[in-house]
Amino acid sequence: MTDLSSFPITKKWPAQHPDRLQLYSLPTPNGVKVSIMLEETGLPYEPHFVSFETNDQMSPEFLSLNPNNKIPAIVDPNGPGGKPLALFESGAILLYLAEKTGKLIPQDAAGRYETIQWVMFQMGGIGPMFGQLGFFNKFAGKEYEDKRPRDRYVAESKRLLGVLDKRLADRAWIMGDSYTIADIASFPWIRNLIGFYEAGDLVGFKDFKNVARALEAFVARPAVISGLTIPKKG
Ligand SMILES: N[C@@H](CCC(=O)N[C@@H](CS)C(=O)NCC(=O)O)C(=O)O
């Protein structure tokens, strides 16, 4: 029987199935990257809901796993060398799971690094820029009279969408015919930008037809449909 008691996070979120990968998350654009990946690969896992309403991400138990107080985070009881592995940062988790399962990343070195490059493009560009646009368009920043900060992130988001649109002009997915972790990293953010953040008109999303086509294919995948609502509240 696997023992995860050395991980303080399991005190607040007890593992019913300690032999399964433990996911601590919330269905946000960063959170669902991991639940979608887990659904796609079929790895057995146990999801735990981290509530922002009660600031769970600031609890000592959560911080013991991720000192950066952000979801998603995991504990894999069966990590490298058969030892448990704790990990945070969605990009690192996607890479780890792709490597562990041998799925959703090309096996040749060049294809592998090209995929990692596009995951980094999402982690360093799409995520942070779209996130700021969300703040200035939908949340507290909406009230600011000076629209220059918002417009800066609109311009940068448009530019990033343009880069992706060009990449997808002659490809079904970011890496071509193969659906990979680069798609799992990116499309939850694009869905969120035009959905929850209500910024579709602002960024002129209708002009990014290749991104729109790939997004449509992404959200139709059964693993994506399931992953988008995991973990459930409660
Ligand atoms: N770079 C991190 C970002 C994670 C992140 O920003 N998570 C947000 C939700 S999408 C969060 O946990 N926010 C809680 C907080 O900042 O207190 C990753 O990709 O994992």
Care to describe what's here?
It is a single chain. The protein is α+β, with helices and mostly antiparallel strands and 234 residues long. The protein has 2 domains: 9-103, Glutaredoxin; 109-221, Glutathione S-transferase Yfyf (Class Pi), Chain A, domain 2 (Up-down Bundle), CATH 1.20.1050.10. The protein is 47% helix and 8% strand. It is built from 9 helices and 4 strands, in the order H-E-H-E-H-E-E-H-H-H-H-H-H. Strand 1 (21-25), helix 2 and strand 2 form a beta-alpha-beta unit. The two termini are 26 Å apart. The protein binds glutathione.
Give the SSE layout.
Layout: H1 9-12, E1 21-25, H2 31-41, E2 45-49, H3 60-63, E3 73-76, E4 85-88, H4 90-101, H5 109-137, H6 148-167, H7 181-194, H8 209-219, H9 222-227
Parallel strand pairs: 1-2
Antiparallel strand pairs: 1-3, 3-4
The structure holds glutathione.
Glutathione binds near residues 72, 89 and 91.
